[in-house]
């Protein structure tokens, strides 16, 4: 069970890190880590996976990461996110998922300013693939092993007794 939780946590961490790297393409100043936001209407506390702060601190967007690997995000799930936007006074949201949205969910997302980022389920900070609008971002790393060897050859020439 711990490894599943760590996989989720890692996915969230990577998503927030990578979104912060392209913040300007998202019309954001920066992307902050997981935090709690108080609902203006309900007074309840919402934990969000990340917070995209708009340029000049002129508002924010909720970042929600869902590493679902067997199904797209459903209408009901996106509707829940839409309510968090309304309750917290956010300007919208970004949903990060490997598989995207079902048809009804896509309609709700469009109506409520929820943008979709597709990020591979096994992404890391160095090895990743994610798509936002018509742009694809890829990171790849490799390990290179370097070894060094030195060969010393000792050749005995004529010594002092030769002369």
From TrEMBL:
Domain Restriction endonuclease type IV Mrr intervals: 47-120
MF terms (GO), sorted A to Z: DNA binding; endonuclease activity
Biological process terms in GO annotation: DNA restriction-modification system
One Pfam family of this chain: Mrr_cat
InterPro entries: Restrct_endonuc-II-like, Restrct_endonuc_IV_Mrr
Superkingdom in the source lineage: Bacteria
Name of protein: Restriction endonuclease type IV Mrr domain-containing protein
Species name: Streptomyces canus
Lineage of origin: Bacteria, Bacillati, Actinomycetota, Actinomycetes, Kitasatosporales
